[in-house]
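Running this now, will post back.
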Amino acid sequence: MQVSLSPNLVLHLCTGTLAILSGAVALSARKGLRLHRAGGRIFAVTMLITSATGVWLAIGSSQAKNILLGLLAFYLAATGWRSARKRIPEWSWPDSVLTLLPVALVAFSVAGIARGVISIRGALPYLLMALFCIAADLRTMTAPGQTNRLARHLWRMSFVLLLAAKTLFLGQAKVFPEMLRKPYLLAAPLVLICGAMLYWLRRVLVFTAPGTGGFHSANQMEISPVRDADEEANGALEGFFSGLLRR
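Update: finished.
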C-alpha cells in the first residue's frame, strides 16, 4: 500500500522533526551562548513553518483541533522569539498583530463548539491557554518594563517545544518501533522538557535583577551566578551537541 505525501505534508514533517531536535539543543544548552542562540533560531523558524503548514493541512482535512494547535504553536513561537530579540521594554505594532492570534483562537474555539465541529473537552485546553496569553499580552502592553522578557521567552519557547514533542511522541506513537511504544518511554521526553523549563524559569526569576524586567543585558541572557558544577554540566552538553552538529 503506497501512501501519497503532498509537498506541504513533507515540509511539515521535515521541519517538525528539525524543530524538536533544535529545540532540545536550545533548551539544554547554557542560555545566551552561541549554541543556544543558533539552536533557538533554527527552532523558531522551523516551528513557525511547521505550525503554519499544520494549520493549512488541518483546514484541508477539516481537523478543527489541529487548527487550534497550529494557531497556538505559531503564536507561542513568534512571541517567544520576539521576546528574546527585543532589547528595550516597549510594545510595538508586530506585538499587537500577534496578539490577534489568541483572540482568533478564542473566537474559533467558541464557534467550533457552537457548530459542533469540536467538543468542549477538546477545545477547552486551547481556549484557556489563549485567554491566559491574552491576559499576559495585555499586562505586557500596559506595563512593558515590568514583564521579565527572559521568562516570557523561556516559557513560550519551552511550551511550544512541549506541544511539538507531545504531537510526535504521544500523537504519532505508531512511527516508533513497537518495543519503544511504552507509555513511560514516550512520555519521558515531555517530562524532561517540563523539568528543564522549570529549572531555567527558576534561574531567570531568581537571578534576574529586580526592576529590570529582564532587559539588563543587551548582548546576552545572563542568568548568573552559575555554579562550577552547572558550568561543567552545560559545557559537557554543549560539547556533545557541537560534536553532533559537526558530523
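The chain has a mean pLDDT of 82. More later if anyone needs it.
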